[in-house]
């Protein structure tokens, strides 16, 4: 366990805003299980009581008593999370924020790969692999644990709190590994987080996370896009996306939704074809300098597009962009790369 491990910079595969869901828990008497994967930080309002006691922003179970409800056949409480982005898990964060006299003294994390549309009963009967052994927890703090199994693609995780108590948030960090069945022979968003794209660099991330730019859902408020600080020079800001794999974009969508007084004045979109590399030079123009409108979904049809593995969106001089989409198709080489990655982590 470490204070700020590098894996926390990866995608939270379990977050609700990428499609994660808490599909089962043996008990959630004081705090609902769904709180575990809310993307926003936990909060607490003292002396705010409901009919079951203090209202909490987290998953909290009742005190275990022999023969009591929710404890039959178990020695601890647990919850199962369906990953919004099935993939390779590098580490987890267990956050006990605001749980001080009621946090669990230990926790354990397991993972499973279950195809199709499993029910809770199917998941309880599945084969589970321990990725974080039983480990001590402290109250009121974020605790980070590296995954001990990192070579396999998982679809679900099971969090056990031992024996009971409250956990505010649960983060599962890693890289999405998309199923090539859904990428072959059909148009896809080459820049989508859900398809395995990643943000590899950004000039500024003052107001919000760069990864928001390629998340699946529509942006509802300014904080759900990518917004930079105000520049006081003649330069501009930029963000680089490593696409799912090599592909040919046909339609680009640049959405400034909710950015009304802080949209970029104009943008330039560059591309590069660098299979197997995170970053580099050799950029070429995909969309020439174009003025942006506030709170508007800009769409561009590309003619004679070249294969690309990376896109670089330059916003000038600064501002916010809600979403970037790059609709197109994978090349043969790109599809081979996706299939190879799938086979490596099956």
Condensed summary:
The chain is built from two helices and 22 strands.
Tell me what you see in this structure.
The protein is built from 2 helices and 22 strands. With 346 residues, the protein is mainly beta. The chain folds into 2 domains: 6-176, Galactose-binding domain-like (Jelly Rolls, Sandwich); 180-334, Galactose-binding domain-like (Jelly Rolls, Sandwich), CATH 2.60.120.260. The strands form 5 sheets. Strands 1, 2, 6, 7, 8, 9, 10 and 12 form an 8-stranded antiparallel β-sheet that branches. Strands 13, 14, 16, 17, 18, 19, 20 and 22 form an 8-stranded antiparallel β-sheet that branches. A two-stranded antiparallel ribbon has the order 3-4. A hairpin with a 2-residue loop joins strand 3 (49-50) and strand 4. 43% of the residues are buried.
How are the SSEs ordered, and which strands pair?
Elements (H helix, E strand, L loop, with lengths): L10 E2 L8 E5 L23 E2 L2 E2 L4 E2 L16 E19 L10 E7 L7 H5 L4 E8 L5 E5 L6 E10 L3 E2 L1 E8 L11 E2 L8 E5 L23 E2 L9 E19 L10 E7 L11 E8 L5 E5 L6 E9 L3 E2 L1 E8 L1 H14 L1
Antiparallel strand pairs: 1-12, 2-6, 3-4, 5-11, 6-9, 6-10, 6-12, 7-8, 7-10, 13-22, 14-16, 15-21, 16-19, 16-20, 16-22, 17-18, 17-20
């Amino acid at each position: 366990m470490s204070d700020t491990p590098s894996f926390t910079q990866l995608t939270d595969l379990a977050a609700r805003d990428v499609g994660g869901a808490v599909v089962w828990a043996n008990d959630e008497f004081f705090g609902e299980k769904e709180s575990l994967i809310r993307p926003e930080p936990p909060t607490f309002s003292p002396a705010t009581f409901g009919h079951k006691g203090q209202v909490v922003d987290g998953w909290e179970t009742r005190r275990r008593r022999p023969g009591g409800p929710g404890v039959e056949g178990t020695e601890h409480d647990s919850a199962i999370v369906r990953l919004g982005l099935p993939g390779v898990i590098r580490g987890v964060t267990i956050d006990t924020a605001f749980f001080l006299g009621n946090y669990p003294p230990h926790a354990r994390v397991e993972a499973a790969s279950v195809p199709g549309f499993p029910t809770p009963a199917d998941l309880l009967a599945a084969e589970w692999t321990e990725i974080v052994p039983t480990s001590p927890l402290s109250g009121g703090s974020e605790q980070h644990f590296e995954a001990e199994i990192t070579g396999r693609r998982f679809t679900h995780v099971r969090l056990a709190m031992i024996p009971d108590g409250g956990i505010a948030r649960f983060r599962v960090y890693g890289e999405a590994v998309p199923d090539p069945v859904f990428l072959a022979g059909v148009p896809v968003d080459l820049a989508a987080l859900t398809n395995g794209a990643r943000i590899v660099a950004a000039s500024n991330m003052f107001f919000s996370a760069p990864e928001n730019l390629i998340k699946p859902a529509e942006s509802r408020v300014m904080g759900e896009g990518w917004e930079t600080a105000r520049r006081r020079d003649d330069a501009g800001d930029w963000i680089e996306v490593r696409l799912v794999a090599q592909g040919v974009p046909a339609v680009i969508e640049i959405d400034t939704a909710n950015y009304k007084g802080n949209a970029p004045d104009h943008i330039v979109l560059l591309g590069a074809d660098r299979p197997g590399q995170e970053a580099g030079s050799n950029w070429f123009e995909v969309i020439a300098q174009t003025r942006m409108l506030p709170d508007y979904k800009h769409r561009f049809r590309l003619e004679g597009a070249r294969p690309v593995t990376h896109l670089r969106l330059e916003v000038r001089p600064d501002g916010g962009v809600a979403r970037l989409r790059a609709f197109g198709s994978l090349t043969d080489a790109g599809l081979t790369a996706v299939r190879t990655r799938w086979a490596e982590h099956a």
